[in-house]
Design a protein that fits this description.
Number of helices: 3
Order of helices and strands: EEEHHH
Strand order of the largest sheet: 1-2-3
Shape: rod-shaped
Strand content: 15-25%
Distance between the termini: 74 Å
Radius of gyration: 31 Å
Helix content: 55-70%
């Protein structure tokens, strides 16, 4: 019979160990044997496997959300394109342009989510955060100012 226990190395570190103790009786003499097996590598491999399963589940979830989000963006983008030909007022065209830009940013986000879900390289690029925030403020600041 064996069981998993924690053991301490000479350097003081704790590690998982499989301990099996047996008894042999030779006449009136009892002989006990013990077998120890370091399980560090096995436990690490099991932890890595569980982590890989979690990442796989996150990837699948991310891919599903990205596909659904992309479907919504397609409808929004298509309606914005149809609306574009109807607008003549400059202020309304500016609002439409900001909405189209936000739709493009959403499409880029969707591509990154899909790449993550498929475990493709994300191809990171430097981003000018100031320009990104200014574009966001132009887009959402203009909308909230009109409300």
């Amino acid at each position: 019979m064996s069981r998993q226990v924690e053991a301490r190395r000479k350097d003081g570190t704790i590690f998982p160990m499989d301990l099996a103790v047996g008894e042999v009786k030779l006449g009136e003499t009892h002989i006990f044997t013990g077998f120890m097996r370091d399980l560090t590598a096995r436990v690490k491999m099991e932890q890595d496997f569980r982590q890989a399963q979690k990442m796989e589940a996150i990837g699948q979830l991310t891919g599903g959300v990205a596909h659904d989000f992309n479907n919504l963006l397609t409808v929004i983008s298509g309606n914005l394109e149809m609306l574009e030909c109807c607008l003549t007022d400059a202020e309304h065209r500016e609002i439409l342009s900001e909405a189209q830009e936000a739709s493009k940013l959403g499409a880029e986000l969707t591509k990154r989510l899909l790449a993550f879900g498929r475990r493709q390289p994300l191809n990171p690029k430097p981003t000018d955060l100031n320009a990104l925030v200014e574009a966001w403020q132009r887009c959402y600041g203009a909308v909230s100012a009109r409300r």
